[in-house]
Amino acid sequence: xxxxxxxxxxxxxxxxxxxxxxxxxxxxxxxxxxxxxxxxxxxxxxxxxxxxxxxxxxxxxxxxxxxxxxxxxxxxxxxxxxxxxxxxxxxxxxxxxxxxxxxxxxxxxxxxxxxxxxxxxxxxxxxxxxxxxxxxxxxxxxxxxxxxxxxxxxxxxxxxxxxxxxxxxxxxxxxxxxxxxxxxxxxxxxxxxxxxxxxxxxxxxxxxxxxxxxxxxxxxxxxxxxxxxxxxxxxxxxxxxxxxxxxxxxxxxxxxxxxxxxxxxxxxxxxxxx
Length: 274
What we know:
The chain has 2 domains: about 5-95 and about 210-270, 3-Layer(aba) Sandwich (Rossmann fold); about 95-210, Rossmann fold (3-Layer(aba) Sandwich), CATH 3.40.50. The protein is built from 12 helices and 10 strands. It has helices at about 15-25, 50-65, 75-80, 80-90, 95-105, 120-125, 125-135, 150-155, 160-175, 195-200, 210-225, 250-260, and strands at about 5-10, 30-35, 70, 95, 110-115, 140-145, 180-185, 205-210, 240-245, 265-270. The strands form 2 sheets. Strands 4-3-1-2-9-10 form a 6-stranded parallel sheet, sandwiched between helices. Strands 6-5-7-8 form a 4-stranded parallel sheet, sandwiched between helices. Strand 9 (about 240-245), helix 12 (about 250-260) and strand 10 (about 265-270) form a beta-alpha-beta unit. The longest helix is centred in the N-terminal third of the chain and has 17 residues, at about 50-65.
């Protein structure tokens, strides 16, 4: 495989930038293509058939761009359409669920795991079912909670607002009562609330899907001898091409909030032809 090919990352919107941030952290010298289907976000209220259609279109776009790895930086798509993507992709595919579940099973000591996510992700039971498939009849206990207000609070930049703290305490109280020691952040927006969540769940290990997906990517690319050989320590800004299906007025503000640095103007495209 050509080591110079980019890594493709796609999401229904801009939440997947938190995943991209982790990839840049672990693989800073790779080239990236980020695709955000911002014209059709959110996917969570769409039918499974439509989510699969949108996922196929994003995948075909990235394949046309010649990527060497596809990262499905969206929990809804990972829950519903990962198998569809794997069937049409001729490159490795990494979703959000399995890397997070594997990390949670490694980290837990008391076998009591919590999961938070959007209503759509929690309703699919994708995390719960993946855990069950790996533990067999072992005596793990899993507690799931939809936290629908977290996404708009993050996008409004209210990361340390008193209202966000009150809502977080309400959402997370049952995890304290259930004595979990590990919590999966089942939405790509949620890592931006790490500090707040840690203050509430003081001794609980937080599992970031993006971080664990990046670690898995290193292994997969190394196995295929596809890691870039360019190691330029003087690179100050990552190599990223941004593509979106719409440019929302808050794009640049949100992108900088998620990535921690300003981004170039994205390329606006249509996925309808795929």
